[in-house]
Amino acid sequence: MHGIPSPAASASAAGAPARGGAAEAVPDLAVIVPLYQARDRLAPFLAALAPALAGLSWEVLFVDDNSPDGTAAAVREIAAADTRVRCLRRIGRRGAAGAGLEGMLASQARFLLAIDIAAPPDAARIAAMIEAARAGSDLVVASRYADGAGHHWSLALARRLTGIDLRDPLSGTFLIRRDALDALAPSLSPNRASLLLEILLTARGRLRVAEQTGPGGAADDAALDAAMALGLAEHVVARLTFGTVSIRFLMFCLVGLSGVGIHMGILWSGLRLAALPFVAAQTAAAIGAMAWNFTLNNVFTYRDRKLTGLAFVGGLVRFQLICAIGAVSNVGVASFIYSGRHNWWLAGLAGVLMGAVWNYAVTSVFVWRRA
């Protein structure tokens, strides 16, 4: 078992001071940091990270998803003064899991540390993770839960699925050995909510895993539990359907199903309580249901692209226009199938499916589009 070498050995192998401007051809440790619109966080992040890397040969690889604020250019400015800092700019792809995986595969380092830039790096915690790797762990996880916290039903499910007893299998901060990642890489999918969970599900208990507990507490447990349940559902659905169906699409459909109830409730109220003509009540019900669907999708289905302020209003208008076109396509497909087979339930289901696919595909581009 090869561990991270001692600081003295690292400095000797480098042939230069460990924190100098030059880097080893193959550093001991690579820090992989997925980014999006994080230009102003770069300098504070590196300043907080440096104490944990003292004495090691290292590199930091920032993976930027084509941020419009010039994050990639800012990384290159830093890299011009320190060649241990690198930038991988991704075009047309988004997501921390894919960014983390691409960054790890782009590095030659023997030990790979993924860090979520949203949480300031804790030098003491990172040092403890490195020590655990020295002790022989293949994977070291920095949990967001405090010691003794986070024991919920979703964790029990995570343990059953992964075969590992972890408090936080969706953590964005973890360290993995190069040889362990290389063995799993061909089976890993970059299109997942959590790279760590994808690694655990693929490994199925074959890795030696250690966990460093965090400063979080009971106040964070509910949010983390909900996020964990959603992340688990996404991975399970993707694996059961071989990646053909996403949890986002299923959530979109479930929100639409709840909208049917809202539609019928508004329609009944308009007819019975307000004594509106049917056309007026039906129109109000349709608008109200679409507003309900948009709001729930904005909060849950597209929580990572959530619209606020004026963007929310503009998104609502676009959503209603797109769904109106989807309703026309629904009726058109259903009518075509019914005219040929006279099978009402098949025609109805085909129309609903067509409308759902249209609404999901088009709104994901024109309402909750990727930046």
Describe the SSE topology.
Layout lengths: L6 H8 L14 E7 L6 H12 L4 E7 L6 H11 L3 E5 L6 H11 L4 E4 L8 H12 L4 E4 L10 H10 L11 E4 H7 L10 H9 L5 E4 L5 H23 L6 H27 L4 H24 L8 H32 L2 H23 L5
Parallel strand pairs: 1-2, 1-4, 2-3, 5-7
Antiparallel strand pairs: 4-6, 5-6
Tally of helical runs: 13
What class do helices, strands and sheet pairing give? alpha/beta
Rough outline: elongated
CATH topology of the largest domain: Spore Coat Polysaccharide Biosynthesis Protein SpsA, Chain A
Low-pLDDT segments? 1-24
The H-level CATH homologous superfamily of the largest domain, spelled out, is: Spore Coat Polysaccharide Biosynthesis Protein SpsA, Chain A
Largest sheet: 7 strands, mixed
- Distance N to C terminus: 44 Å
For the largest sheet, list the strands in their spatial order. 3-2-1-4-6-5-7
Number of strand elements: 7
